[in-house]
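Appendix B, record 7
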Amino acid sequence: MAMTPTHPPLPAYPSPAAVVALLKPITWFPPMWAYACGAVASGASLQDRALPVLMGVLLAGPLLCGMSQAVNDWFDRHVDAINEPDRVIPSGRMPGRWGLYIAIAMSALSMALAWLLGPLVFGAALIGLALAWGYSAPPLRFKQNGWIGNGVVGLSYETLPWITAMAAALGSAPSMPVAWVAALYGLGAHGILTLNDFKSVAGDTEMGVRTLPVLHGTRSAARIACLVMAAAQTGVILILLSGGHRTGASLVTLLLFAQVLCMPRFLADPQKYAIWYSAVGVGLYVVGMMVTAIAFGTTAATAIQFI
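Structure tokens (predicted):
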């Protein structure tokens, strides 16, 4: 008598490990770092406003960023079933529609926490929420175009957390120079995100995902990524100089110069060296973010003491 192979039944509920895998904690660093930069740039005493700042870190990282990962995995589940079947949803570790339910629940929690932090933080979080869903969910699916999708992520992961942190720390909107700096670092993140696209050029071409390497070729996309990152930091240096932050401007200039020295190796073979440049160049980039934040924060703290 022939034996029919049996398979273990799929779980009715996701395990805690499956939920963590869906939310991808490793991706929380960029918005949390940007939030930390915004808090430092405010110059406010973190001891006095420790609770709002900590709540904001929770909002930027585990809640909003974690939610965006859940949304992305849910709407990419059919593609992942082909390209990455071991991922948490196509593998069955996240059964049924639980991926969608978690994304919705995280969205609600994010908005509830943002409401407690005041109207400025709530407004910024609402924009971030809309961009996260628009990035992955049809009919918008910003991720289908590298120019639009990378811009959306840069705004969500860098600019909004920076501005939100200042609003939480000060209870008011940031000054225009700091707002421009936050916008420029978000723009520079567009280039950083392009670096991540070199590892999947063949798959993106097959699936019709128009990343910059697919649209313009790997060498042109590499030049665009380097130019965008360098141009954003040049703008930051000019803003620092115009505000009298000469030490901060000098340090960011040195960090940018170090990146420029690394660029020829990356440009020679973008697909081979994209991961290397992501580690080296992006590391220098994010250090420059904190240097800029400290420059603004030191001046702001001095001004606060004399008010």
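Remarks on this record: The first helix runs from residue 16 to 23. Confidence is low (pLDDT under 50) at residues 302-307.
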